[in-house]
Write a structure and sequence with these properties.
heterodimer, A: alpha+beta, 3 helices, 2 strands, 26% strand, elongated, B: alpha/beta, 8-stranded mixed sheet, 8 strands, 32% helix
Chain lengths: 70, 205
């Protein structure tokens, strides 16, 4: 399990729909048949996940490219 | 012909009619017993210490065995001893196709629990045991066969490699994205190889 956002930062975000603070929770990201168990801020009510820009444009983009190149 | 790590005897059943005499060796008592129950001769022993005379076998199979042994060098010394001078070792196993990426994935997976090798490392290992590679064939395509066909794994490729490389259950969690990137670089695959004895080799064992 990896942490990409610290607890304080995660809980400083509010879910736009439910108006609840997000919580760091286990999230399973899947892409092209591969699963990535990570810990990300998630709305405890509706399950909306906040994906930090640095992760989306960094490692996740690299992984997407690596999987697509196969 | 001997099948090292014979399991329940699938290979022995397949080659049984083709050779004069074949038997299995497995470190698991249950596996050796299940072979015997199926009429396949087998003994329980570790590949690193074979209870067999020297110069016995024309062929030794090691299918997905060398990469999971405690001591592959010792096992190869035993294989060398038990093989006849013109005997052949037939290996199939998982390996790293990209030498540059192998270091990355080892750094993530951690040391001794993790033993997959590159082709060059396998050649060195064999040479150190007095064996020389005669045939090397990449069979990685069998890892990507469609579901339902005879297959080495099922489920997503990352899950397969995470299990094979013993990533889960490590005390230090491995970042799944870093792991996928390392797998993409190392390009783990599957090979078949045949090795024979080097004529002039004198073993230290």
């Amino acid at each position: 399990m990896s942490e990409y956002v610290n607890l304080d930062e995660a809980e400083s975000w509010l879910c736009a729909h439910c108006h609840l603070p997000l919580r760091l929770m286990p999230v399973q990201i899947e892409y092209m048949g591969s699963g990535f168990p990570v810990e990300l801020p998630k709305c405890p009510k509706c399950g909306m996940v906040y994906l930090p820009e640095a992760l989306a444009l960094g490692k996740m983009a690299e992984v997407e490219k690596a999987l697509e190149d196969k | 012909v001997i099948d090292l790590g014979c399991g329940s005897g699938t290979t022995l059943q397949r080659i049984g009619s083709e050779v004069k005499q074949a038997f299995g060796v497995d470190r698991s008592h249950a596996q050796a017993k299940s072979c015997i129950a199926n009429g396949i001769p087998a003994v329980q022993a570790a590949a690193e210490m074979l209870p067999l005379p020297s110069d016995l076998a024309d062929g030794i199979f090691a299918e997905c065995v060398l990469s999971i042994l405690d001591d592959d060098r010792l096992a190869l010394a035993e294989i060398y001893r038990v093989l006849r001078p013109d005997g052949k070792l037939i290996i199939s196993d998982l390996y790293f196709r990209n030498e540059d990426g192998a270091a990355d994935i080892r750094a993530l997976a951690g040391g001794p629990a993790f033993k997959l090798k590159t082709q060059a490392e396998m050649m060195d290992l064999l040479r150190g045991a007095g064996l020389t590679l005669e045939i090397w064939e990449d069979l990685s395509s069998v890892l990507q066969q469609a579901p339902g066909q005879r297959n080495l794994h099922s489920g997503p490729p990352a899950d397969f490699w995470r299990k094979k490389l013993r990533i889960d259950g490590k005390s230090q969690p491995v970042d799944p994205f870093d792991f996928q990137l390392a797998v993409s670089r190392a390009k783990p695959g599957y090979y078949l190889a045949i090795a024979g004895k080097i004529d002039s080799f004198s073993s230290f064992f």
